[in-house]
Amino acid sequence: MALLQFMTCGLPSSAVPASIHCDHLIQAVTGAEEDLKRSLVTNAEVFDFLESAAKKYGIEFWGPGSGIIHQIVLENYAAPGMLMLGTDSHTPNAGGLGLLAIGVGGADAVDAMTGTPWELKAPKITGIHLKGNFPEHGWTSTKDLILHLAGKLTVKGGTGRILEYFGEGVFNQSCTGLATIANMGAEVGATTSTFPYTPSMRAYLHATGRSPVADAADEAAIAGYLRADDGAEYDEVIEINLAELEPTLNGPFTPDLATPLSKFPILLQEKGWKDEVSAALIGSCTNSSYEDMTRAAELARQAKNAGLTAKVPFLCTPGSEQIRATMERDGLTAALEEVGATVLANACGPCIGQWKRPESTEENSILTSFNRNFKSRNDGNQKTMNFLGSPSVVTAMAFSGKLSFNPVTDSVSTPTGEQFKFTAPVGVTLPENGFESGNPAFYPTPNPKPQPDTPIVISPTSSRLEVLEPFESHFPNEPGELPAMTCLMRVRGKCTTDHISAAGPWLKYKGHLKNISENLLITAVNDENGEVNVAMDHDAKESLEETATDTIPKVAQRFKARNQPWALVVDENYGEGSAREHAALQPRYYGCALIIARSFARIHETNLKKQGVLPLWLADKNDYTRISSGDKIQTEGLAELLAGSRKDVFLRVTKRNGEVLLIKTTHTMSADQLKWLQAGSALNHIRAQRQS
């Protein structure tokens, strides 16, 4: 979608170095080789489009099977002290190399690619002081640290903040371990996470063929850079003694519900959950490094020696072709497969719902080393509970088959009836014989020159790709108030970007706004009736065979057909999770002009602004219940705000019974963002500036 938006700007190339990564469309079915072959056929038109755009604009192209964007970026592009933008919420993974890597929507990326100044509301800085090292038993890892921190901060505790880690505990971790911490900072809403430059970063840069970068970072560090200034003050400081942490599982259905493994059996009893694991999955952009895989393989070898095999489906996802090839050379792949693991393609796979799992509506529990565990995210089953853990814990539990199993203290029965207890895996930070590059076909041409005569490959009959048409401005004549709107619905509780624009099978329509919009809010709960994917149409016409209630996308389509602008009322932290900008594009496509929230997640709020949807915060959160479907909403004060006044914006709400309410809101719109709203979208504004 970022490319489709960039194409509308009329530029011959990107103003900054850019890369394209095909990691979202390989479905996990039988294993790496067959799954990749299948994907190349079923997704050919999407891959052909991406490759043609890369050639035309001079962008490095990492094709399907090359790996997950965040692992590839860490291996090839990240460098201490740089600023990086990426069109995925887990872009901060690159922070493991001591930089500021920030997840944004595609329209924000277009700012950078067009040389337009990119802006961000100045975040607060939370200092995370890491003391000491992990317990001597060896089962606690950096994944457990970030799971613990997510439990402390919650999914919105890092919103509007950079998490800056410091203290001796930072220097006791590997570079890829720090990347795991930075990756899951997204789960607490953090703008990004970063660390001072460490010897482990230097070693990783040398190991990944970037010695000149390591040398430059060394010089900068000697000069006093790449670390906090002496006497640096933080807006808040959180102290964590690593020695007190234990392996942790987070979930289900939210990544901030943290339970130490020693207390998990109590939680099982309290909730009445079955003490069963239905699948174990390791990998994803969070934990697919060589170090992670050596730990899993070490446990697999221990299990084999004890006569054990995995009791449940055990899926393993390498993070990149470099990791896959090195795993194969060093015997890690064989060790995993010998105990029943299936090694998947180098791609996102089940973490984002690309998993062809046998359909079921039964309650079940899976264990993963992923970063998100929202309802229905992995396999489409709303009753699948995903508990997040470290690769070591997930691997060990695959041989137990029980959620109550704690590898720190518990044993497993072998086929001969003996009791076997795992030894904590040590793991190898970097391969002794260096990294293996693998298949050269998976690597891009470095620094390609634009080929302006390259045609962009989009079939006019495609159901998966379409050229974007600019959104019209809400102000056809001159800036003023938004047009009168109807409230479509009031959304209850957690509403992530997965709720707004589901992933899984819908990902094939990411390049076709009309088609993917048909999944708008299909798993959202209507606060007025408690139903999922049900909206009320108070203006339904029997003559048109319109019913009083229908699915949310169907009612939104009716509003669009009537040229009726509409608004949405939403709850806390609306739009948390993925940077998926379709969650902003889809409401806008159907005619949404305003979203009123108790609070917004950072990336999604910006995405809404970029697409010309006005996000307003309720000054009094109790006003959330005062606006209902069918109410007529008008803005008051927006005209003055657009004219340069800092006046608050009020909402005049006319209830269906004629009662009129005046509700105060707040906003975070900057002067430039108000120009986006006037133009109808940020892209419209950029295009108008360039034409003038």
Question: Please, could you describe this protein's structure?
Answer:
By secondary structure, this protein is α/β, with parallel strands linked by helices. It contains 23 helices and 27 strands. The protein has a seven-stranded mixed β-barrel with strand order 18-22-23-24-27-26-25. It has a five-stranded parallel beta sheet with strand order 13-12-11-14-15. Strand 23, helix 20 and strand 24 form a beta-alpha-beta unit. The mean pLDDT is 96.
Task: Please describe the structure with a list of short key phrases separated by commas or semicolons.
five-stranded parallel sheet, seven-stranded mixed β-barrel, 23 helices, about 700 residues, single chain, alpha/beta
